[in-house]
Amino acid sequence: MVKIFPSILAANFANLEKDLKNVENNVDGFHMDIMDGRFVPNISFGFPVLESLRKITNKYFDTHLMIVEPDNYIERFSKVSDSITVHYEATTHLHRTISQIKKFDCEAGVSLNPHTPVSLLEEILPYLDKVLIMSVNPGFGGQKFIETTYNKIRKLKDMNSNVEIMIDGGVNPNNIDKLVKAGASSFVVGSAVFKTSDPNKAIKEMRDIL
Ligand SMILES: O=C(CO)[C@H](O)[C@H](O)COP(=O)(O)O
Ligand SMILES: [Co+2]
Question: What does this chain do (predicted)?
Fold first, then answer.
């Protein structure tokens, strides 16, 4: 069963509650893009937004930390998240970081920038719930999907793990089918949901393709 997680980065920040409530019955959860202006060249939002949204929906919160030194913030994010994903490139002691996420009762994921090979995950894979493959350079929504992602998914599949493979960046009705065939099962979708005139129709269209 394919899962769809709209990224609130593409929603209307002047009325997040309305945008989330509008689609919440048709989605598997919401993706939260946390950017610090250091790991990525952009700043998005942080604890006050997550803590406010946690009060208005019980849906799964999939928190994507695009920040340096994520260990300093895991305990606080764990209180408002169901899953926490850190970047391979931002983490020195990845096994320790993943253990911390689990200790605070969250699912744990590692995200890879487009240039980072999946082979680097070999030793950490048994400890992960998900791998988040970035199909754009992290930092901004609305970017063009990077085509080499398909091959990267196949390579991760070949590593014989049951880990959930989630794709983030430029996912839309034109590429979701091919991504599923390559082996991905979860999708972050920002612009192709919230920047359309009918977000629920966009979600249905993607589910109908599969
Ligand atoms: O992590 C991200 C960017 O760093 C976002 O989750 C991603 O870009 C989703 O937005 P879109 O579907 O518009 O590409
Ligand atoms: Co993201």
Answer: Catalyzes the reversible epimerization of D-ribulose 5-phosphate to D-xylulose 5-phosphate.
Range of the domain at 31: 3-209
Identify the pLDDT of residue 1.
85
Nearest CA to ligand 1 atom 12: 190
ipTM score for this prediction: 0.98
104 φ, ψ (degrees, to nearest 5): -95, 20
Pocket test for ligand 1, best of 135, 140, 196 (most atoms within 8 A of CB): 140
Strands (E), 27-135: 30-35, 61-66, 83-87, 107-112, 130-134
| CATH number, domain with residue 18 | 3.20.20.70
**Ligand 1 mutation pick, 35, 143, 149, 186, max ligand atoms within 8 A of CB:** 143
Number of domains in the chain: 1
